[in-house]
């Protein structure tokens, strides 16, 4: 029996709206232990915003002694201005090899999981690596 995305995906997903400001996104990333937010519009997946996307979009001087009003203004940008659009997605029944190839081939850090167009989870490269590591550990213990 092969392992599929549904076996390892996180169903604890956090969504943001396209018109949310980056200061909201920054607060979410600072309080949570994950690195990708799914962007929705009318409950339809429109994009992904990673912590890396956020850091590229805001001033590096925010929170420093050299912070200026202009630096703080970067936090007023909207999510739709910096998000990755048309995300690569997978279904829950996709095997891990396919998901891993999608992440590698498209240079993304996560894959939103859609079941008949409904957002049901997210799988990240860390989830895949953890699953492979656990699978290898099990295989070695059988030797």
Structural summary, described in words:
This protein is α+β, with helices and mostly antiparallel strands. The chain has six helices and six strands, in the order αβαββααβαββα. The protein is elongated, with a radius of gyration of 17 Å. The mean pLDDT is 91.
Write the layout of secondary structure elements.
Layout: H1 5-8, E1 15-17, H2 22-31, E2 36-41, E3 44-50, H3 51-57, H4 69-73, E4 84-85, H5 96-106, E5 110-115, E6 118-124, H6 125-142
Parallel strand pairs: 1-2
Antiparallel strand pairs: 2-3, 3-4, 5-6
Judging from the principal axes of the Cα atoms, what is the shape?
elongated
Proportion of beta-strand residues: 15-25%
**Structural class designation:** alpha+beta
Q: Enumerate the spans where pLDDT stays under 50 for 5 or more consecutive residues.
A: none
Number of strands: 6
H-E order: HEHEEHHEHEEH
Largest sheet: 4 strands, mixed
Number of helices: 6
Distance from N terminus to C terminus (CA atoms, Å) equals 19 Å
What would you report as the Rg, rounded to the nearest angstrom?
17 Å
In the sheet with the most strands, the strands line up as 1-2-3-4
| Fraction in helix | 25-40%
The average pLDDT is 91
């Amino acid at each position: 029996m092969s392992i599929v995305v549904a076996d390892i995906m996180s169903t604890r997903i956090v969504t943001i709206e396209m018109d949310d400001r980056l200061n909201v996104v920054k607060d979410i990333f600072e309080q949570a232990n994950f690195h990708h937010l799914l962007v929705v519009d009318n409950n339809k997946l429109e994009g992904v915003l990673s912590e890396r996307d956020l850091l590229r979009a805001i001033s590096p001087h925010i929170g420093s002694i050299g912070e200026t009003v202009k630096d703080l203004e970067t936090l007023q940008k909207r999510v739709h201005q910096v998000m990755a659009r048309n995300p690569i997605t997978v279904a829950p029944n996709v095997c891990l090899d396919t998901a891993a190839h999608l992440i590698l081939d498209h240079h993304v850090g996560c894959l939103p999981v859609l079941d008949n167009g409904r957002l049901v989870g997210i799988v990240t490269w860390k989830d895949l690596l953890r699953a492979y590591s656990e699978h290898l550990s099990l295989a070695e213990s059988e030797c």
